[in-house]
Amino acid sequence: MRIEARRLNLRPLPTEGRTLKDALRDGGASFIIPVGVLIALLVSGFTPSYAAVIGIVTVIASSWLTKRPMGLRGVVAALESGARNMITSAILLCSVGLVVNVIATAGVGNTFSLMIADWAGGNLLIAIVLIGLASLVLGMGLPVTAAYIVLATLSAPALAGMISDLSVIDAIAAGTLPDAAKPILMLANPDAMTLLAGPVPHADAAALVGALPLEIAAPLRSFVVTPEAALAGLLSAHMIVFWLSQDSNVTPPVCLAAFTAAAIAKSPPMATGLTSWKLAKGLYIVPVLFAYTPLLSGDWSAALQIFGFAVIGIYALAGGLQGCMEKPLNLALRALALALGIACLWPFSLTVNVAGALGTIVLTVINARLGSTPQPAA
User: What pTM value is reported for the model?
Assistant: First the structure.
């Protein structure tokens, strides 16, 4: 949004003397503190039910830091409103539960997973694209939560397996495949013995693993992939599906969130949908990070490093797509910004990440100092 404001040369709105402390006192504390407590409890390993109860108590307590503290009547009214709103969610979850049970009973989930693995040909990026298309179609008729549950039931197992296969590929390429796993691999491909004698090119290892049937790939993973890595792969698969499920809200021709915003703003619905689709393309970047980086491995130092490069990279990509950073970019600089953004997000080389980040910083400084200022928007 900052880039869009810069591109249109929109001026900041007057603050009218309000500060962050004033915003918190007016009601912001009731939103920020409970959400922070809820996330902290979940990350610390507490159950969702326990975290939810503590979150409710935190809402009541934090309201006393605002101008509208909650008394007994306010608490009862809030509980009543929450119960009424849950009726719609309960009906939705019951309906989704029926769909999930039908899928599990009929075996559609396994069939769909096999179809994705077959169509992708062992390529994880193609699998993510296929799941993204499926989530977009489902999201046109289902809410985000329902679309996620249905799609996770169908595709998450296959996606988790393909993410785990990255560890198998690395082990074969490095020549560190456990001896117990080699006979399993040779059952599917007797010619693999020549490749297992030592380190092999990464592309050959990827082709070898991608051609394995499911009945061979699954036991092979159990010998190579650690339980922690398998859990991280499963979590990454579900987060990829969940993240892609959000795209249906802002992607034409059926984008309920964008159409709702258009009705409020009295703007053309389809034009609003196209603009929202353009501004939300960062949605497609995060799933790739989930798949190819240890963002969800539990290693905080690695996660913070990936996050830092991703922030700079997404800014560069947004600048290249929008044609503006601090000031407008010409075609050559837009291409350079896109290349630098990809370099920041490249998952296979820290050197490339550092070069991309430094290049983005230099480009931003040069653009801010030497770029031409657009005419103010009417």
Answer: 0.75
